[in-house]
Automatic annotation (TrEMBL):
EC identifiers of the protein: 2.10.1.1
Function: Catalyzes the insertion of molybdate into adenylated molybdopterin with the concomitant release of AMP.
The name this protein goes by in its record: Molybdopterin molybdenumtransferase
Gene Ontology biological process terms in this record: Mo-molybdopterin cofactor biosynthetic process
Taxonomy of the source species: Bacteria, Pseudomonadati, Pseudomonadota, Alphaproteobacteria, Acetobacterales
Length: 402
């Protein structure tokens, strides 16, 4: 059976960065830059004051006392139209351009002003309280590289560099179809043998949080004709995801149903728990991932395979968020040949170390346990038994959308 890293590599090899689009800066947070952002101005654009006070010539000041003549004012946005000569100063405010001739700012707390006369016993080194032109970034400088998930800080940076629009990769559109005769919309009257469809809304929420545009398709019944119809519902999407009908039971029809309309299966079944019956292939050019129906397996497989694929489609340079180190909060037994993903509570010990404590029951249908889990503990195939306090690798669920 294919290992988890091999399966992920096969999936990543079959998806490609999407084309770009231009969006308003205010809509760009969370999107991925598709071109480097080059600053259109220097920041600050001129030498400016970082304090409220007086623009002075440092050489005029002396500990024995100096008396300066205030020849004007420079509020932010209104540069002083003149030069500060010997024995002169200009009233200045934070962010205002330092007038020619001045080379330091005397803060007003250290000055006594009376009419146009300013006295002080403070001395200053040239450059005091002046932010130099371009000290943050220079015009023409690359300030945001291509392939970065844009944060609110990046938005501020691009705005300061005078950009109103930004080029980002298009959001991946992902069609999600759950399959199963037992599934009804959440909130329905649930009859005997029926359950509420939790996979579609859960996966749509996860993929949306990861920057995709989910397209929720209707639930497909367990029959070949319904599955064949799927092919007609995926115009314009970038990936098709199904959940359920992946295993070997006689009603598990997804693979056979899609193969009759042209699915080329790349793999089916991998050495993973939860998630053994995972499927991957292409329907024409459309990447297809068939998730197992058990909701926890569907979620974990989405984290391990779909989110990295979306990151590649978005143009991020590192598709896989690396696992973090933690210590085990309880003993774990030897693992079998399937890579395991133990649902675990996260906390900290007295030394501040991250502690991952696996839940006692690891059933892949238990959504309440999944919702309480902060992490998945990774257990390599055939890993030896491990004790509480031993180091382990974890996927932090709150970090997988990065
Ligand atoms: N004889 C075998 N049986 C099973 C095997 C196996 O290897 N041999 N594998 C097991 C494993 S592991 C998994 S995982 C499941 C996966 O099965 P399917 O992908 O075919 O999923 P279904 O049979 O359709 O459903 C499984 C389970 O999940 C519930 N489900 C399905 N879809 C939803 C949904 N949208 N919302 C909520 N719950 C859903 C469904 O009712 C079933 O209870 O197979 C094992 N069996
Ligand atoms: O792989 Mo199944 O996901 O164990 O539940």
């Amino acid at each position: 059976m294919l290992s988890v890293p091999e399966a992920r590599k096969r999936i990543l090899d079959g998806v490609f960065p999407l084309p770009s689009e231009v969006v308003a800066l205010t809509d760009a947070c969370g999107r991925v830059s598709a071109a480097p952002v080059i600053s259109r101005l220097s920041n600050p654009p001129a030498d400016v004051s970082s304090m409220d006070g007086y623009a002075v010539r440092a050489a005029d000041l002396s500990a024995r006392g100096a008396r300066l003549s205030c020849i004007g004012a420079a509020p932010a946005g209104h540069p002083f139209d003149g030069t500060v000569g010997p024995g002169e100063c200009v009233r200045i405010f934070t962010g205002a351009v330092v007038p020619p001739g001045a080379d330091a700012v005397l803060i007003q707390e250290n000055a006594q002003a009376e009419d146009t006369s300013v006295t002080t016993t403070t001395t200053l080194a040239p450059g005091t309280y002046i932010r130099r032109r371009g000290q943050d970034f220079a015009e023409g400088q690359e300030i945001i590289p291509v392939g970065r998930r844009l944060s609110a800080r990046d938005i501020g940076l691009a705005a300061a560099a005078n950009h109103a629009w930004i080029q980002v990769t298009r959001r991946p559109r992902v069609a999600i179809a759950a399959t199963g005769d037992e599934l009804l919309l959440p909130g329905s009257g649930i009859g005997a043998g029926q359950i509420a469809n939790s996979n579609t809304p859960m996966l749509a929420a996860l993929l949306r949080a990861a920057g995709a545009d989910p397209v929720m398709l209707p639930v497909l019944r367990d029959d070949m004709a319904d599955l064949a119809m799927l092919e007609r519902m995926v115009d314009g999407v970038d990936m098709l995801v199904t959940a359920g009908g992946a295993s070997i039971g006689s009603h598990d029809l997804v693979r056979r149903g899609l193969e009759q309309v042209g699915l080329k299966t790349d793999f089916w079944k991998i050495a993973m728990r939860p998630g053994r019956p995972l499927m991957y292939g292409h329907l024409g050019r459309l990447p297809f991932i068939g998730l197992p129906g058990n909701p926890v397996a569907a979620f974990v497989c989405s984290v391990v395979f779909i989110l990295p694929a979306l990151r590649r489609m978005a143009g991020l340079t590192t598709p896989v968020v690396p696992p973090e180190r933690a210590v085990l909060g309880a003993d774990v037994p030897e693992n079998d040949r399937r890579m395991d993903h133990l649902r675990a509570r996260l906390g900290h010990d007295a030394d501040g170390r991250l502690v991952a404590t696996p839940f006692a029951v690891q059933d892949s249908a238990m959504l309440h346990v999944l919702a309480e889990s902060g992490a998945l503990i990774l257990r390599a195939p055939h890993a030896a038994p491990a004790k509480a306090g031993d180091p382990c690798d974890v996927i932090r669920i709150d970090r997988v959308m990065e």
